[in-house]
Structures are given as C-alpha cells and as structure tokens.
Amino acid sequence: MVTIKDVAKATGVSPSTVSRVIADNPRISPDTKKKVRKAMKDLGYHTNISARNLVVKSTKAIGVIMPSSADKALQNPFFPEILRGIGSVTHRMKYSVTLSSGQTEEEIYEEVQRMVFGSYVDGVILLYSRLNDRVTNFLIERGFPFVIVGKPYENVNGITHVDNDNFTAGKEITEHLIDQGHEKIAFIGGSKDLFVTIDREAGYEAALQEAGHEVSDSYKIHTEFLKSGGREAVENLMSLKTPPTGIVVSDDLMSVGVLSMLEESGVKVPRDVSLVSFNNVYLSEIILPALTTVDIQIHELGAQSAKALIEKTVNKTEPVKRISIPYEIVYRDSVSRLP
Amino acid sequence: MVTIKDVAKATGVSPSTVSRVIADNPRISPDTKKKVRKAMKDLGYHTNISARNLVVKSTKAIGVIMPSSADKALQNPFFPEILRGIGSVTHRMKYSVTLSSGQTEEEIYEEVQRMVFGSYVDGVILLYSRLNDRVTNFLIERGFPFVIVGKPYENVNGITHVDNDNFTAGKEITEHLIDQGHEKIAFIGGSKDLFVTIDREAGYEAALQEAGHEVSDSYKIHTEFLKSGGREAVENLMSLKTPPTGIVVSDDLMSVGVLSMLEESGVKVPRDVSLVSFNNVYLSEIILPALTTVDIQIHELGAQSAKALIEKTVNKTEPVKRISIPYEIVYRDSVSRLP
DNA sequence: CTGTTAGCGCGTTCAC
DNA sequence: GTGAACGCGCTAACAG
C-alpha cells in the first residue's frame, strides 16, 4: 500500500504537504501541487479512509436502515428505487452507503448501535417509521443525526423527515373517483399502524365526506399483505348488498393482488369496479389494466432524505425540517366513468 | 467518545490489557476480564472501527455492486431479496455492507476503485455480469477478492461465482410444458447479452430438440424490458400462422408484462396459451393467473455469495468456487394441459 | 508557502 | 498475567 509518506519521499516534500495538496489547500504552490499530483498518480496513491476517518472523526458514510423483514414489504419495488434515489446524492457528494442487514427488530437495533458507537457512519436514514421504535428513540437520545422517510410517530416537529402529503394525495385520488361519478368507494390498506395507510385513508374519508357520500366501516379493509386473508376480505367486500364501484388501494403492489382477486371473482376492472392506488411503481404501468395511481416520486424521496441528512451531519445545528415531496396523479386505465 | 484508555484508567489496568479482553485473549485472568468488561459496559465503551481497521488492515465490510441503471432491471424485486440474502450472513458474521450508488458504468467503476484502494471493504459482490466489464477486469488485475452472482463471461473457472444451473432449469421448465402436451413453444427473454437469458434459452432449445419439436427463430423474441417494443413483438408472435401454445419467459416481472399484452390481444392464460417463467418473486404468487415458475432461491443466492466472499477475504488462498444453487419448479396456474 | 511535531484509537510486539 | 512502547496512515496545529 502506497502511503502519503511514499509520495512525499518521491516528491521530496513532507508528508503534510502531500496531505495539503490532497485537501487542495490554497496555500500550496501550483508547482508543488503539480509535482505531488503526478507522483500520486505514478505511484498509484489512494488515501486510506480509515486513517483519515480516525483523525477527522467523520466517515462520509451514511447508514440506511431497512424495515425488519416482519414488514414483508421488502419485496416492494419501493426499496430499490429509494435506494437509487439515495445513491444519486450520496454518490455526487462522495459519500458511501452502509445498508442495514438485520432481519429482526432486535438485530437492527444492535446494528444501529454498532453503526453509531463504532463510528461507522455520520448519520442514518430510517426507511420506516414505527410507533415506539427503539431505534428511533436511541437515535434521539444520542442526538445522532438521522432522518426518516415517512412520517414520525412522535415528535413530528422534532424529527426531520421527508414524506409526501399522503392525506391530500389520498383525498385527491379519491376525488378523482368521485369526479368520475363514483359514490360507493372502498379503501383497502395495509397494516393500520403504518402512517402511510392512516394518512391516505384519512384523505379518502375526507373526500367522501366533503362530497357527502357515505363512509362505511364495511368499506374499509386492512390486510397485511394480500394472501389468503386478503382474499376473503375482498370477497366479502364485493358481496355486500351494495358493493363499491370504486376502490382506493394504498399501494401498487397490493393493487396487483386486489386485481387478481377481483378478476377471480369475475369482476372486471375497470368495467365493474374502478381501482386507484399509490406509488407508481414500474409494475403499475405494465399490468393490465395499467393503474391510475399517484406518483409519489420515490426516487426524489430518497434523494431528498439523503440530502437533508448530509446537511445535518455537516452542520449539526441545521434546523429540523419537514420536507414534502410533491406527488402527481398519473391517469391510466383502471378507472371508468360512471353514468 | 470513550476509548480504551478510559476503560483502562477506570479499571486500573493498562490499555493493552483492555485491548486483550476485547480480543478475549486467553492469557488474561478471568477476574480482570470481568472487571474490565464491567467498566466497558458502565462507561459505554464501543470500539472505534476506524482505529481498528487502520491497524488490522481489514474492514469487515463488503461492497455490493448493483448493475448500472442502464440495466433498468433495478425495479426487479430480485434485488431487495438478494440484498436480504446477503444481509443474513453478513449480519451473522458481523460484517457490514456498503452499497454502490453509482448510476452509470463509469460512476460505478470509480466507486469500486475508491472502495478497494481506499480500503473501504475487504471484498466485493458483483450483482451483474457483463462482457468485458471494466470493474471485473480491475478486480482481477488487483487480485481483489470478489464474487459474481451469475455466470462470468470470461474466465469462468477463475472467478468464484454463485449461480443457478439456468440451462437445466430452462430445459426442465420447458419440458414441463412439453409434458403437458405443448409443442409450439416460444421464448421471450431480456437482453441477449445477459447470461441468464442465454442459458435459459439454450435450455429451452435443448428441451425442444430432445422432444423432436421445432425450434424456430420466429418463436424467440428478445426485448429490453417490456414496453412499446415488446408489445409489438408479442403481437407478432401471436399472429403467426401457427402461434405458440406455450411461452417460456425469462423472468417473472417480464411475465407480468407479457400477460398484460396477451390479455389485451384477447388471448387468455392459460386457456389459450400457457406461460412459465423464472425467479418466483412474490409477485408471481399474487398475480392472476399465479405463475408456474422456477424458484431460483434468490435469498440463498445472496447468502451463498456473501459466505463465499467472506471466506475468500479471510483466507486469500481459498480456491475458486463455482457454487450452484438448486432451483425448484413451483407449479401454479399459468399452464394448461393440451389434449 | 512548507516542514516538524503530535496524536487520533487501537493492536501488537517485547519485556517483566 | 500484565504493562510500556511503538506504529498503522493521516491531519492539524505550530513554526518558520
């Protein structure tokens, strides 16, 4: 391994000078810079990150914490996409990304501990938000920089997070259904202790109420991830005395499941029932019918969270921020107009 | 930050003793161990990873390199799953995972350089395999430990990689179609410079030939990822004088696209045409019809690659390995028996 | 503008 | 069984 000393020796300067040209210190003469740079290239010098980290007490690395695999959501294309969003800014800023690898809540907690205590990373992005989460509490206690993608459960004004306005998005997409003449509209969401679900559902209800349409409990179903359980729920829903003509589903992937169940029961989308959902994942475009869905700009969600985090790590006094990423409804073929 | 010295002072021993109990050195008396450990806990000591890395010249970290986003495949649920597989062993071994964040081939190349030269990681997992890849060549030149998930393009016997036997898998799944009475079988695959595609396709052809069925070029279509271009291709396929009654698709996600196009053209699966594919991603289970597909055990692919890599990093003389992960066909509802 | 010195936190001789 | 001393590669004063 070629070190700063080697370069120094080869150039006939001192190690600190070499260090300075690496930092592009303005007080170094252009000549020596040139010389040193040449030597670095010739010798194949590359700065040793551990050594630097040790002294500057910073790692230029951020940790990204995925939800525990209890949240089966991992199969959701949401994650690769948000990772890419994060990557787009970390790469630009020459930061690196350390991914959590724990599967259970406990494992993740330990991992985050190592990350912060061991000085693995300068800050952390939480890709989930759970009530009473040990990790979150830990981070707060330690005053360690972190941002949440989504809405924090507690201390909303004290935790910088980046999110969509899921309430309004839910309202708007429901209104679209209403505009198309639908009155009987159902909601199918994931676990109701996820804020996304709660917010989107609240928006759905608001739209209904504003329009003066009934919001009935039998129209709202929550199901982990669509398998056996979800199937019954959907069947029940459609065999109500007055089945819905429109459904708001909280997530594209879930929509795929709902779609299958619906078709299986002989109801066609959008002929018999209209469907809208959220995320605008690639999938929603290639499925039949293509989904009308709200594009929440996952990539941007990731990018902004990384940006906010990095700002926080370089400037600890950076104020808490609530960043809202605009969404946009993309209209496709899963909705039909009612007479 | 509480260091080894602090613990030493608090315990009345020397720093080196503390270091030894951390390493669980057997020549330390149980008593002092106990004492020191208590102090560590009390003071909240955590070993500083940078400092340790600096001296031991190892990072206990591995880099995971995703394909450039030119390979639009990133939306594929394959990636989160393989990441989880990798995570399952890195976590157990207390390794950490650094994710590449570059988007273009060039960016990724630079990134890998930093990773290896800067001693960010001990080894690297390549989640793709491209012909004449700079990254691969670089890694080889430097003699840096790495493993490929998939089949290397060159030097197959010189690069440890973990893969499925895609040829046989392709053959077997095609044979399943044949067993069900199909003779006219088409193949739809992704880019034909991906080895997965090549191998699976070869298997498909082999099955056909062995069964004495025609393998026609007009039955083989390659399309990046199914959008406009793919649509036409599928339409052409189905409007051949003798359209296929069965289709082998190289990937579940792609199957979803094919399925849509088929239905759009009024052909029903599996009534009019049978469909099989690969990967057994969660999606293939919730779609209608549920896909008959070969489960390639993505999670295991990830886990084994991490395991192999770690072994390589701890023991540089570890021999090159070709690890083949068994696959298994899971039979669902996308195939019908021909009379 | 540049060199010298010191020290980041840890592991590892080599003594005792 | 334990301590003292040194060095990993780098940056940051402090000189000059």
UniProtKB/TrEMBL annotation, chains A, B:
This is LacI family transcriptional regulator. It holds the Pfam family LacI. Transmembrane segments: none annotated. InterPro entries: HTH_LacI, LacI/GalR-like_sensor, Lambda_DNA-bd_dom_sf, Peripla_BP_I. Keywords: DNA-binding, Transcription, Transcription regulation. Residues 2-56 form the HTH lacI-type domain. Gene3D superfamilies: 3.40.50.2300, lambda repressor-like DNA-binding domains. One of its GO terms (molecular function) is DNA-binding transcription factor activity.
